[in-house]
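Translate sequence into structure tokens.
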Amino acid sequence: MDTERVVEDFRHYFSMVAAITPELRDQAYRIRYAVYAEELGWEDKDRFPDKRETDQYDIDSLCCLLRHRASGQNVGCVRLIRSTADGERAFPFESVIVAGSALEDRFGVDWRSKSAEISRIAVVSQFRRRRGERERPENAIEDDNSVTPERRVFPHIAIGLYLGAATMGLINGVARVFAIMEPKLARRLRIYGIEFEAIGEPIEHHGVRIPYVLTRESFEGSATASIKSLLRTITEDLRSSGG
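Result follows.
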């Protein structure tokens, strides 16, 4: 796989936008509703009569949007959940960690205050793979018969969203990010030197998922040169949009 080609294609077709205004956050909530409630049926549409999928973590989470340059349309989103200032509020992933105390042993008693969780990744349907894999919110795009160049030449659109979330964490001094994802996606990310480490057993949640952690040290040490270059581009995108 030509990782440099993937990075250049991403730069050509997409940019990241910090969702710092009510209007931009509203767009993220609407994308989430379209994907999680209408398309996948993972959320009850009746709970969101305004067609905006939100929960209690949104109030103090960071959020960014994936923008399609040619159309100007926002086609994906991701959020980064932060703990409360006192570090007391648990992250969503903790509900599936059997030995939660191991995190304190490994990262210190105040580990939550220096951590964040990548969450609510969603990509609108026309930018997700079609053949037999419409049941995932952030699908890799690998359909060679796709009718648009974006879907044909950028096979891992989810990587941009994970990097967007990681960038928000880096900008805000986070030491580590957690995520619950498919093992297959974690393996794809490793191709680019993005080394998420499994910290729990597989669970069933709309398919097999595993909780992972990515530390700042691991990311900075193992990411490929092309991914680090893309990270700089995404950082510039987010900072220029106010992130």
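Note: DSSP finds eight helices and eight strands in the chain.
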